[in-house]
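# step 3/5: fold
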Amino acid sequence: MENRIKNAFEGKKAFIPFISAGDPDLESTEKFVLALEEAGADLIELGIPFSDPIADGTVIQKANLRALAGGVTIEKIFETVKNIRFKTQVPLVFLTYLNPVFKYGYEKFFKKCAEVGIDGVIIPDIPFEEQAEILEYAEKQGVYVISFLAPTSNDRIEKIAEKARGFIYVASSMGVTGVRSEITTNLAEIINRAKKVTKTPCAVGFGINTPEQVREIEKFADGAIVGSAIVKIIEEYGPEAAPHIKEYVKTMRQ
């Protein structure tokens, strides 16, 4: 089956929200995904909760802990995605760390991703140079491993961009995820360099939380990724968060 990620970027700038699977519970996750799609999400990132999420700030760390305390496992998340796929074909991407994937088994993990309808996987703690150990399993199943470009990628930008599949996650800043009042990295330069060697779309994440930031980023990027601001709304409203995140995403999307 053709990978759905390309639909997210076809003829438009993509809006990509992130939520932690299982926060506050998996029934809510299902509701939230449908609400996000209704509000205009083009692709949705689902975080697999992990006890040591090194790329994430406090807001997402707390969401991970809430989900884990509620008994969330990778197996249960796969089951939830399977249910979601009966209701929507919106592109879905996992954001996880290497440890849970390693423990689950690379081959088994990517096979299961393909079975339930996951289109891509983002693993922030695997360097580009070490992706080979998981790529063969992912490619065999038609699941994209999403590459990262960071403000420190420097002379590796072209090398990473050339091999990228699905989309490229461009981190707006150094440090961890979390709401930022301003983004000072020269993102346009990073993206221009990437675009010289690839047609793979570039989406910017880390710290985006206002419509103004989205407008600014979409002048040179193909999409905007918003996580902590949405997870904060879920923290506040719990299982009743669906209408609130829908409202927020609608504002951002417009």
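# step 4/5: annotate
The radius of gyration is 17 Å.
# step 5/5: archive (pending)
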